[in-house]
C-alpha cells in the first residue's frame, strides 16, 4: 500500500513553545489514521501543517507527494477538510453551500445525493445559523467531499455532538474508507479511534508516545488481562493465600491479573471452593482509553519518555 | 482571476446580505432617512420665505401699508400682521410662539413720513436662527433705504445684482444628494468589510476558504462587485427621493458612473485593509470608526467643504471621500468634466494602491 502522508522530524514552535517536537509517522493510502492526544498536545497544529495552513518550523512533510505549504493550491484540490468546530456563512443553505463549493472547485456535485449521504437531506434549505451542532458538522463533511478528495482530514469531527449524531458521522467515515479514501482523524474520543482506525498515533507534549494498530498499542502498553469478580471482600486474601495470585480491589471488584486465559478457570475453581459468596465474574481487558490515560498520566509524572513512532 | 469563482462568491455573499435585514437597512433605508431628515431641516429653512410677524400700530396710514407691501415684494419675507394682547411685550410674545422675526411699526409712522420726520422701526430677531434674522434684517433695511431715498427724492447710483456661483441656482438639497451618495459609498463597504474581515478570521472562515481554489484577490473582487451594485441601487434611490420629495435638481450623466464604481472599489479595499490590522472584531470596529467618522463629516457629505475653516479644508483635501463627492458634485451640479477628471484620476490611483496593499497585507492562512 503506498503512502498518502509521510512526516519526518516535524517540528513547530511558537516563540519558545515547542508545540510539535520532532515527530515521524506515515499514513497508508486507503486507511483510517487516528491521531490522538489530550488538549494542547499538538494535534491541531500537526493537522493544520498537513493541510498546508501552517508553515512547519522544521522537518519534512509530504501529503500525496506534495509539500503542503508550497504546493497548497494543488494539494487542496485533492483533500477535504473539516476543521474543529466547523463554521460557515450564517445565512447560507446547505444546498447552496455545496453548489458554492462545486463552483469554486469546478465540480458538479450531486447535491441531493451528497446531502443524503451525510444525513442532511431534510435540512437542504435550512439556513446555517439554524442548524444544530451535529448538522453543522455534517454540512462540513459534505463540503469536504465536494471535490471527491483522496484524503479527508477530520479534526475532532464529533466533539460536542450527541451520541446519535456521533454515530452518524462514524457511518460516513466508514463509507469513505470503503470508497478507498484515506482518513486522517484527530479525536480525543478513544472509543472512536478504536472503532474506526487502522492505525493510531498518540501525541503528548508535541511528541508521539505510542503508535501502531489499536490492538498493538494495547498489547504493548496495556496491562495483562484480568479476571474481575464481584463478591465477598474476604475473597481477596483467600485467593492470595490459596491461589498464589496478587488480587487488587478496583471500584469494589476484585481483579486478578492473569498470566494466560486458562488461569481464569483455575482461579474460578479456587473461588468456588472458598465457600465465600460471589455474584458474577468477567474477563477484563484494557481498552485504548485505559492505555491512553495510563500513558499520558505516566508521562505527566515524568515516568515515561516519548518513544517515537513504531 | 477566475470569473466563475468570483461569480459564485458574489452570489453567496449577496444572498447572505439580502437575508440580513440589518444590511439592507443601512444600505438603502438609512440614507433615505438621512436625505429625508436633512432635506426637511435645511430645504425648508433655506428655500421658504421668512414670516415677519408685524405689529402695525399705525394701521390706518397709507405709508405703513406701502411699507409692508414693499416688504412682501422683496421676496425674502412674508408679512403676517399680528395684534398681541400685550403690545408692550411684543418680544416675549414672539419668543413664546417660536417666531424668529418680528417688526413693530410705531404709531405716527405715516404722519412722520409725510412731514419728513424720522421714525424708528423696531425689528426683533432670534440669534438662534441667524438665517431668518438675516433675511428679515436685509429686507427691512432695503425697504427702509428705498423709503428714505424716495423721501429725499434721491437717485440710486450704485446697486448690486445677485447671481449664484457657476451661474446655476443650486439649493442645499442639490448638494445633499451627491453628498449622501458619498456617505453611502463610504459607510456601506467600510463598516461591513472591517467587520467581515475580522469576524471571518475569528471564525476561521478564511482558513476554510483558503482550502478551496478561491484566491483572496477573487474574494475581494466579489465583494467590490457586490458593493458597486449596491451603490448603484442606493444612489438611484437617493436621486429619486431627493428629486421627488425635495425637488433636487441634479444632472444625471455617465460621468457619475466612474465615481459609483471607484468609490466602492476604494472603500471595500480600505475596509479589508483596516480589518486586517485588527486582532478581534471589537478592535476592528474601533479602527473602522476611527477611519470612517472624520471622512463622514469632513468630506462635504452634509455641507460644502468651501464653508469650512481653512484648517478643516486642508484636512478635507487629505480625505479620499472628498474627491469622490467633489467629483460627483462637478458632474451632477456644475457640469465641470475637467475637475471631475482630476478627482477621478486621484481616486483611481488611490484605489489601485489600496487594493494591492489589502491583498498584500491580508493573510488567508497563518505562518
Notes on the structure:
The complex is a heterodimer of chains A (310) and B (367). In chain A, 35% of the residues lie in helices and 27% in strands. Chain A contains 11 helices and 13 strands. In chain A, strands 5-6-7-3-8-9 form a 6-stranded mixed β-sheet, with helices on both faces. In chain A, strands 11-12-10-13 form a 4-stranded antiparallel β-sheet, covered by helices on one side. In chain A, strands 2-1-4 form a 3-stranded antiparallel β-sheet, covered by helices on one side. In chain A, helix 3 (94-105) crosses helix 4 and helix 9 packs across helix 10. Chain A is elongated. The model of chain A has no long low-confidence stretch (mean pLDDT 86). Chain B is mainly alpha-helical and 367 residues long. Chain B has 2 domains: 3-43 and 167-361, no CATH class; 50-162, abc type-2 transporter like fold. Chain B has 14 helices and 4 strands. In chain B, strands 2-1-3-4 form a 4-stranded mixed β-sheet, with helices on both faces. In chain B, helix 1 (3-18) packs across helix 9 (216-246), helix 7 packs antiparallel against helix 9 (216-246) and helix 13 runs antiparallel to helix 14 (337-361). The interface between A and B is medium-sized, with 29 and 25 residues.
What string, H for helix and E for strand, traces the elements of chain A in order? EEEHEHEHHHEHEHEEHEHEEHEH
Instruction: Name the CATH class of the domain at 3-78 and 149-219 in chain A.
Output: Alpha Beta
Content-based structural category of chain B? mainly alpha
Task: Output the strand order for the largest sheet of chain A.
Answer: 5-6-7-3-8-9
What is the helix content of chain A? 25-40%
- Provide the spatial order of strands within the biggest beta sheet of chain B: 2-1-3-4
Give helix and strand order of chain B, one letter per element, not per position. HHEHEHEHEHHHHHHHHH
Q: What is the alpha-carbon Rg of chain A in Å?
A: 23 Å
Unreliable parts of chain B: none
Overall geometry of chain A: elongated
Specify the CATH architecture of the domain at 3-78 and 149-219 in chain A.
3-Layer(aba) Sandwich
Number of domains of chain B: 2
Strand portion of chain B: 5-15%
Mean pLDDT of chain A: 86
Number of helices of chain A: 11
Name the CATH superfamily assignment of the domain at 3-78 and 149-219 in chain A. P-loop containing nucleotide triphosphate hydrolases
Oligomeric category: heterodimer
Task: State the share of residues found in helices of chain B, binned by percent.
Answer: 55-70%
Radius of gyration of chain B: 28 Å
Amino acid at each position: 500500500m503506498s503512502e498518502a502522508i509521510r512526516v519526518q522530524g516535524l517540528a513547530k514552535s511558537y516563540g519558545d513553545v515547542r508545540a510539535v517536537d520532532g515527530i515521524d509517522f506515515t499514513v497508508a493510502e486507503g486507511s483510517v489514521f487516528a491521531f490522538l492526544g489530550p488538549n494542547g498536545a499538538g494535534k491541531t497544529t500537526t493537522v493544520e501543517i498537513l493541510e498546508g495552513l501552517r508553515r512547519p518550523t522544521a522537518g519534512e512533510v509530504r501529503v500525496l507527494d506534495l509539500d503542503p505549504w508550497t504546493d497548497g493550491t494543488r494539494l487542496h484540490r485533492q483533500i477535504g477538510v473539516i476543521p474543529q468546530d466547523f463554521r460557515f456563512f450564517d445565512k447560507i443553505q446547505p444546498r447552496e453551500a455545496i453548489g458554492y463549493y462545486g463552483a469554486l472547485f469546478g465540480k458538479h456535485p450531486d447535491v441531493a445525493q451528497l446531502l443524503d449521504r451525510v444525513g442532511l437531506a431534510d435540512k437542504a434549505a435550512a439556513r446555517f445559523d439554524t442548524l444544530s451542532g451535529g448538522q453543522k458538522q455534517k454540512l462540513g463533511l459534505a463540503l469536504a467531499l465536494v471535490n471527491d478528495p483522496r484524503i479527508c482530514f477530520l479534526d475532532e469531527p464529533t466533539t460536542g455532538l450527541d451520541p446519535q449524531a456521533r454515530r452518524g458521522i462514524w457511518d460516513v467515515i466508514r463509507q469513505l474508507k470503503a470508497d478507498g479514501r484515506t482518513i486522517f482523524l484527530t479525536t480525543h474520543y478513544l472509543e472512536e479511534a478504536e472503532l474506526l482506525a487502522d492505525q493510531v498515533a498518540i501525541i503528548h507534549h508535541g511528541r508521539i508516545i505510542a503508535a501502531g494498530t489499536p490492538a498493538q498499542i494495547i498489547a504493548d502498553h496495556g496491562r495483562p488481562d484480568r479476571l474481575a469478580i464481584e463478591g465477598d471482600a474476604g475473597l481477596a486474601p483467600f485467593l492470595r493465600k490459596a491461589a498464589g495470585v496478587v488480587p487488587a480491589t478496583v471500584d469494589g471488584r476484585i481483579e486478578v491479573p492473569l498470566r494466560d486465559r486458562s488461569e481464569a478457570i483455575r482461579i474460578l475453581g479456587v473461588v468456588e471452593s472458598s465457600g465465600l459468596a460471589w455474584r458474577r465474574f468477567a474477563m477484563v481487558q484494557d481498552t485504548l482509553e485505559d492505555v491512553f490515560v495510563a500513558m499520558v498520566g505516566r508521562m505527566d509524572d515524568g515516568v515515561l519518555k516519548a518513544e517515537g513512532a513504531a | 482571476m477566475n470569473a466563475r469563482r468570483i461569480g459564485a462568491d458574489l452570489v453567496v455573499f449577496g444572498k447572505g446580505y439580502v437575508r440580513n435585514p440589518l444590511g439592507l437597512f443601512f444600505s438603502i433605508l438609512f440614507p433615505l432617512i438621512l436625505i429625508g431628515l436633512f432635506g426637511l431641516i435645511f430645504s425648508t429653512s433655506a428655500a421658504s420665505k421668512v414670516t415677519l410677524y408685524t405689529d402695525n400700530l399705525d394701521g390706518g396710514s397709507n405709508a405703513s401699508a406701502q411699507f409692508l407691501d414693499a416688504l412682501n415684494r422683496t421676496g425674502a419675507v412674508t408679512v403676517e400682521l399680528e395684534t398681541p394682547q400685550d403690545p408692550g411685550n411684543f418680544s416675549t410674545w414672539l419668543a413664546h410662539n417660536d417666531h424668529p422675526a418680528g417688526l413693530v411699526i410705531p404709531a405716527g409712522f405715516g404722519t412722520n413720513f409725510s412731514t419728513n420726520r424720522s421714525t424708528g422701526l423696531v425689528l426683533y430677531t432670534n440669534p438662534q436662527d441667524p438665517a431668518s434674522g438675516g433675511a428679515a434684517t436685509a429686507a427691512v433695511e432695503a425697504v427702509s433705504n428705498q423709503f428714505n431715498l424716495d423721501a429725499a427724492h434721491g437717485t440710486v447710483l450704485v446697486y448690486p445684482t445677485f447671481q449664484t456661483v457657476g451661474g446655476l441656482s443650486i439649493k442645499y438639497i442639490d448638494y445633499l444628494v451627491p453628498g449622501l451618495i458619498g456617505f453611502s459609498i463610504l459607510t456601506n463597504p467600510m463598516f461591513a468589510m472591517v467587520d467581515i474581515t475580522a469576524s471571518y478570521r475569528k471564525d476561521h472562515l478564511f482558513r476554510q476558504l483558503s482550502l478551496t481554489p478561491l484566491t483572496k484577490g477573487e474574494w475581494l473582487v466579489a465583494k467590490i462587485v457586490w458593493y458597486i451594485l449596491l451603490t448603484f441601487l442606493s444612489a438611484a434611490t437617493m436621486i429619486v427621493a431627493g428629486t421627488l420629495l425635495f425637488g433636487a435638481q441634479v444632472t444625471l450623466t455617465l460621468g457619475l458612473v466612474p465615481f459609483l464604481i471607484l468609490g466602492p472599489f476604494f472603500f471595500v479595499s480600505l475596509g479589508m485593509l483596516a480589518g486586517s490590522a485588527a486582532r478581534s472584531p471589537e478592535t476592528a470596529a474601533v479602527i473602522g470608526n476611527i477611519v470612517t467618522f472624520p471622512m463622514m463629516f469632513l468630506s462635504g457629505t452634509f455641507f460644502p467643504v468651501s464653508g469650512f475653516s481653512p484648517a478643516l479644508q486642508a484636512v478635507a483635501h487629505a480625505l479620499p471621500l472628498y474627491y469622490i463627492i467633489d467629483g460627483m458634485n462637478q458632474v451632477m451640479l456644475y457640469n465641470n468634466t475637467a475637475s471631475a477628471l482630476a478627482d477621478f484620476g486621484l481616486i483611481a490611483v488611490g484605489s489601485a494602491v489600496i487594493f494591492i496593499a489589502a491583498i498584500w497585507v491580508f493573510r488567508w492562512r497563518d505562518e
